[in-house]
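Write out the 3D structure for:
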Amino acid sequence: MHLEFTKLLEISAKLRGENGCPWDKKQTLESLAPKVLEEAQELLEAVQKNDLENIEEELGDVLFTLIMLAQIAKEEGKFDMGTAMTKVGEKFISRHTWVFGEDSVTTAEEAVEQWNKNKAAEHARRANNKKS
């Protein structure tokens, strides 16, 4: 699977590269952002219909749209997909303290409650760091 993901990163770079697609090269974070909602809506509809073939296709479309956004950000020197993936991994580990830490939950409801507590604590830490 790692190779397939790397291939998508390479495709996005080529589409926006010197001999790439004029439409893709013209896109910005702002112009591409609405595509995220459009593709997510199509994925939602496929899930609601339990259309597995279409779910697979739309999931890929959502993923590639996100990859393109990361490619644009990389070109602008803001961040890249690697840093976005690292940050989301860290976030999910820090918020799932009953899986990766010392907390304990037994129900989905307790998990949501603990997630929300962890999220609130994280936001409070960030706010305090900004004040410093």
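The chain has a mean pLDDT of 96.
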